[in-house]
Amino acid sequence: MDTPPVHDDGSRLTVEVDGAVAGYLLYSREPELLRLAHTVVDPAHEGTGVGSRLVCAALASAREQGLGIVPQCSFVRSYLARHPEDLELVPASLRAEHGLPG
C-alpha cells in the first residue's frame, strides 16, 4: 500500500484509501495539550499501518505546535510503548495515569 496522506479537520485525523475512510483518530486541543481520544481502523485495513500512520501524524502535529499529548486511546498508548522515543510528548505528570513509564 502506498503511504496515504493524513487529513485533519480540526478534531479528527483521517486516512482514506481508494476514496473511503480507512481509519481515523479523534482528538481535541486543550491549552498546551492534544488529547488523543480514540483511534478506529476499518477491519479491511487492519495490519496495514493505517493506525500507526494516524498516530505518527498526531505526534508530528503536537511537536510542530509545541504541545504535549494526553494518550487516552489504548492504540496510542500501545504505540508509545513500542516507540519510547516519543514518550517525551506525554507530560511526566500524566504518564503513570496512562500506564506509561515515568
Protein model, in words:
This protein has 102 residues and is an alpha+beta fold. It has one domain (6-98): Aminopeptidase. Helix content is 28%, strand content 32%. It contains three helices and five strands. The protein has helices at residues 50-65, 74-82, 92-95; strands at residues 6-8, 12-17, 20-30, 33-41, 68-71. A five-stranded mixed sheet has the order 1-2-3-4-5. It is globular and about 40 Å long. It starts with 5 loop residues before the first strand and ends in a 7-residue tail after the last helix. The mean pLDDT is 95.
Task: Indicate the topology.
Layout: E1 6-8, E2 12-17, E3 20-30, E4 33-41, H1 50-65, E5 68-71, H2 74-82, H3 92-95
Parallel strand pairs: 4-5
Antiparallel strand pairs: 1-2, 2-3, 3-4
Poorly predicted residue ranges: none
Q: C-alpha Rg, in Å?
A: 13 Å
Instruction: Quote the CATH topology.
Output: Aminopeptidase
Total discrete domains: 1
How many helices in DSSP terms?
A: 3
Give me the count of strands: 5
Structural class: alpha+beta
Form type: globular
Major beta sheet summary: 5 strands, mixed
How far apart the termini lie comes to: 36 Å
Report the sheet-strand fraction. 25-35%
Text of the CATH class: Alpha Beta
Gist of the model:
By secondary structure, the protein is α+β, with helices and mostly antiparallel strands.
